[in-house]
Amino acid sequence: MFEKLPLSLATKWGDVLDIKNLKVHHLSGAMTNEFYRISGPTKKENVSRVLVRLYGEGLDRFFNRDEEIRTFECLSNNGQGPKLLGQFANGRIEEFIHARVCPISD
């Protein structure tokens, strides 16, 4: 399911030049989940589109995933975070937000 969801989302973007050229980039730094950024060439530039979150194994013992998704959706719907774009058995797809880490000096 994970492989089909990003492609189904990409077909709705409208400005992707070639869906077959979408690239998957592993992101590091997560403690409990795996994160992947999906990007691809568009008519304007090479754009990062979505963040794929794969839940860590066994963590559902500590987190209520249904409650987590409800909270995430509520925040998302009120403009307080990335949009929830899709869900699958062991993860979700979110809007990718371009950001930087704020140094402690700021």
UniProtKB/TrEMBL annotation:
Family classification: Belongs to the choline/ethanolamine kinase family.
Protein name: Choline kinase
Top-rank lineage group of the source organism: Eukaryota
Annotated SUPFAM superfamilies: Protein kinase-like (PK-like)
InterPro entries: Kinase-like_dom_sf
Ranges annotated as spanning the membrane: none
